[in-house]
UniProtKB/TrEMBL annotation:
Protein name: DUF2887 domain-containing protein
InterPro entries registered for this protein in UniProt: DUF2887 (IPR022573), DUF4351 (IPR025587)
A Pfam family this chain is assigned to: DUF2887
Highest taxon listed in the record's lineage: Bacteria
Source organism (scientific name): Petrachloros mirabilis ULC683
Residue ranges occupied by any DUF4351 domain in the UniProt entry: 216-274
Length: 279
C-alpha cells in the first residue's frame, strides 16, 4: 500500500490528528496548519510539518511516517529537521518530532548514537499496533490504524468505521472519511475496481454520488497542489512549462499521476508521461 499519500490526506483533512497522538499537545493545536516541505542543498524531504499560526512564535512539529525498515532513518530525520529549524529559527522557539511506525519491528536497530534525542521529550515514537483496537479509538486515529490491519479484517473494520462515521462525523468530515476509508481498502484490494470496493463496503449510491460530487467540485486545486508538491520533493523545482502542464490536467489524470509519480526516477519520466496523455 502506498501510504504516503493516504497519511498526507489524513493530515490535510484533520491537522489536529497529529496532536491526538501526543500526551501533551500544544494549547493552540486547533490553530496549527499542515504542510510538506523539501529542503535543498542537500535535498531533504520532510513528510509533514505542522506550523503554528503565522503571527505566533511557537513550536514546529515534524512528522515522519515510516512503514519500511530504514537503518539510517534517524540520521536523516535529525539532519533535515535541524537544517529546517536552523533556516527558520526566527519563526519558531522550539521543535518536536513525531515518527509513526506500524510496529516496533520496522524501527532502526542502531539507536545508540541518538539516545539523547530518543530518550528526551522532543522525539515521540508512535507504534500504531500499540494504540489499541480500532473500535476503541477516536475516529481519525482509527483511520490511521486501518492502514495496518490484516487484509482478512480490513473490510469488516472499514465497514465499522463507516457506520461510526454516519452517526459521529459532521457532514463535511463524513464525506472526507468515507473517501479515505474507500481509498485505503482500494489499496488493500488492488484487483478490485472502485465500484466493487464501494459495493463490498456497502456504500449506498446516494453516498457515493454525494462525495464524488464534492470531490469533483472542490478537489482540483488540492490535487494540483499535492501532485506538484510530490514532484518537487522528488526532482526539485519544476520548469514552469511542466508546472503549467500538470496544472492543466483534469482531476482523473491528476489522480493517475499521483500514483504514477511514485515509480518515476527522473524528470524525463514525468515528461514522457505527460506526452503520452496528449496522444
Amino acid at each position: 500500500m502506498r501510504r504516503d499519500s493516504i497519511f498526507y490526506k489524513l493530515f490535510q483533512q484533520s491537522p489536529t490528528l497529529l496532536f491526538e497522538l501526543l500526551s501533551a499537545p500544544p494549547a493552540n493545536a486547533a490553530a496549527y496548519r499542515f504542510d510538506s516541505v523539501a529542503i535543498k542543498e542537500p535535498r531533504f524531504e520532510i513528510d509533514g510539518v505542522f506550523l503554528p499560526p503565522e503571527n505566533e512564535t511557537g513550536t514546529v512539529y515534524f512528522c515522519e511516517v515510516q512503514f519500511q525498515k530504514d537503518e539510517q532513518l534517524y540520521e536523516r530525520i535529525f539532519a533535515e529537521t535541524s537544517l529546517y529549524f536552523y533556516r527558520n529559527r526566527a519563526r519558531f522557539n522550539d521543535w518536536q518530532v513525531i515518527i509513526i511506525y506500524p510496529d516496533r519491528a520496522v524501527e532502526q536497530r542502531d539507536v545508540y548514537p541518538h539516545r539523547t534525542f530518543l530518550n528526551g521529550d522532543q522525539v515521540h515514537r508512535v507504534y500504531l499496533e500499540e494504540l489499541g483496537e480500532i473500535r476503541s479509538l477516536p475516529l481519525w486515529v482509527a483511520l490511521m490504524v486501518l492502514t495496518t490491519v490484516e487484509e482478512s479484517r480490513a473490510v469488516e473494520e472499514a465497514q465499522y468505521l463507516l457506520s461510526r462515521t454516519r452517526t459521529e462525523a459532521t457532514p463535511t468530515s463524513r464525506r472526507a472519511i468515507m473517501e479515505l476509508v474507500t481509498t485505503i481498502v482500494a489499496y488493500r484490494f488492488e484487483q478490485l475496481s472502485r465500484v466493487e470496493v464501494e459495493a463490498m463496503l456497502d456504500i449506498t449510491l446516494q453516498e457515493t454520488r454525494l462525495y464524488r460530487d464534492i470531490k469533483e467540485e472542490g478537489r482540483e486545486e488540492e490535487a494540483v497542489n499535492f501532485v506538484t508538491r510530490q514532484l518537487t520533493k522528488r526532482f526539485g523545482e519544476l520548469p514552469q512549462a511542466v508546472r503549467a502542464e500538470v496544472g492543466g490536467l483534469p482531476l482523473s489524470r491528476l489522480e493517475e499521476l499521483g500514483e504514477a509519480l511514485l515509480d518515476f526516477t527522473s524528470l524525463d519520466d514525468l515528461r514522457a508521461w505527460l506526452t503520452a496523455q496528449n496522444q
